[in-house]
Amino acid sequence: MSRSRLWTLAPTWAVLAALLGGCATNxxxxxxxxxxxxxxxxxEIGKQGYGPVxxxxxxxxxxxxxxxxxTIGQKVAHVSHLPDLEWHFTIVDDAAVNAFxxxxxxxxxTRGLLVYLNSDAQLAGVLGHEIGHVTRRHxxxxxxxxxxxxxxxxxxxxxxxxxQRYSGAAQQAMSLLFLKFSRTDESQADELGVEYSTKAxxxxxxxxxxxxxxxxxxxxxGQRLPGFLETHPDPGDREKVTAELARQAVAGKGTLVxxxxxxxxxxxxxxxxxxxxxxxxxxxxxxxPVLRFQITFPPGWSHRDTRAAVAAGEPNQAxxxxxxxxxxxxxxxxxxxVAQILAKGSISGAHGARETIGGYSAWVGHLDVPAEGQSTxxxxxxxxxxxxxxxFQILGQSLKVGDVNEERIFSTIRSFRSLSDAAxxxxxxxxxxxxxxxxxxxxxxxxxxxxxxxxxxxxxxxMNNVQTADRVTAGTLVKTVTRLH
Length: 485
Hints:
Radius of gyration: 24 Å
Oligomer: single chain
Largest sheet: 7 strands, antiparallel
Helix content: 25-40%
Number of strands: 21
Number of helices: 18
Shape: globular
């Protein structure tokens, strides 16, 4: 049995070799390009990736806002270089300030970014930019250049291929969430975003304010997805170049749509920041109000929390532990589930025993997992805990069996408990509140007069695309973060 180094990439070279020499026509340039990824494969990756993205990050529960974003997205996509593609625009229930495109016409925008935008025109510009990544085939190009096809990035996939939640095209799609475009890609997407949004009837001069806002936000700590500026690097003089492109694009176009107040009213009451109802950390303690459990991770380890799993990693990549729910467990007892995956050949060995953890029936031990395409196996630290209708699965791995990090993993496993503290269960997320300014004054004075209790006045200012000392006139709609707890 062997333990491989954690959190490394393993491209599927056989697939790459099979695809070498393939060509595809770029919809924007109409030129033939060498590509490992065909248009048909792009469609499949986008299609198969939709479900896993929603499972991983959540669909924002606001049908009216979803429809609103989709309507604007479809208008912009209709004037793109792929008007007949079946486009999909989805709001992801995540606090990260981001938008991302997957091949095949699947565009995602986080609620975290929506609350910082201030008009239909800004939204059209963001969506136009992401549409540009698809029409220009940037993802396919990056996959070809970096040989990412078949690689897995997600924390949950690195523990063992046997316990990957997704496979094939879906796994490839999830890998793309962490793809970083080149500066050339960004310049091209900026240009197309201006072109598409203007053709759709929106005032692309508003895009300038979007980039200014993104720069003010900077790198946000604790984001589930990489931030927009991380995955969309600044090609240099972005604001200046985009402003000039927009000036040229709108020349002679007459009246173009901005719809500031219409948009701002749409984001009233949208959840701001992390939604604690879906799980949250307090130090190294993790609480999940809906599933009613708590668990303590090793001190000093980094955390990653999504709808599908919560995990922690040792700072030097020497160990990782992840908690999720076991697929296909039905009402099986923990030891019966271990026997089932052993019988199926998912694992080649199981060495452990039944325990009681936090008052719940559990199986704790080691699993031998066959290495893909090899005769060796990998050892995982493992536990399966039956809590009501769910079988929780905790998998871990350190560099060596019996080392100090493995001890920490098993301590984490045995810290699993039921959550009964009402104060930890009855948590309420912060929300965006839209108010009409009753009297002219500086932004900071207006916010104080509204009775808002912002954790950070600068955040409210950025959300409104203003400075804290800027003058705000009576009748203006302003957004503030309101705490209801």
